[in-house]
């Protein structure tokens, strides 16, 4: 897979930064989920996103989410590289591993490269 286009990289970085600096875990998760949607086509950013989700799950002592993130870390890069990932999926353990989900309009525009 090619490298992440600059406009997607900028949006991904913004979401990951917002997750790191959020005042509460609910907001952190929301930003990590948005970053996940942006990162799915790109093996390393996709895996990095799941690593950040794992760290948050461990910090919260959430066993279900932790296990779900470990599984997702294993399959993230191969799924991205092969193009087999569920578009719009938030990446959380409560979302089916291969379940497509509605994509937020702003993220769909970013991924499509349209304003």
From TrEMBL:
InterPro entries: DUF3703. Residues 81-105 are annotated as: Disordered. This is DUF3703 domain-containing protein. It comes from Rhodococcus aetherivorans.
């Amino acid at each position: 897979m090619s490298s992440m286009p600059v406009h997607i990289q900028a949006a991904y970085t913004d979401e990951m930064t917002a997750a790191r600096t959020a005042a509460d875990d609910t907001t952190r998760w929301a930003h990590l989920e948005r970053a996940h949607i942006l990162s799915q086509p790109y093996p390393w950013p996709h895996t990095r996103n799941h690593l950040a989700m794992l760290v948050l799950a461990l910090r919260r002592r959430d066993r279900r989410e932790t296990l779900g993130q470990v599984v997702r870390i294993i399959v993230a890069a191969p799924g991205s590289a092969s193009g087999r990932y569920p578009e719009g999926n938030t990446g959380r353990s409560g979302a089916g591993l291969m379940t497509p989900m509605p994509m937020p309009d702003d993220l769909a525009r970013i991924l499509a490269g349209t304003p």
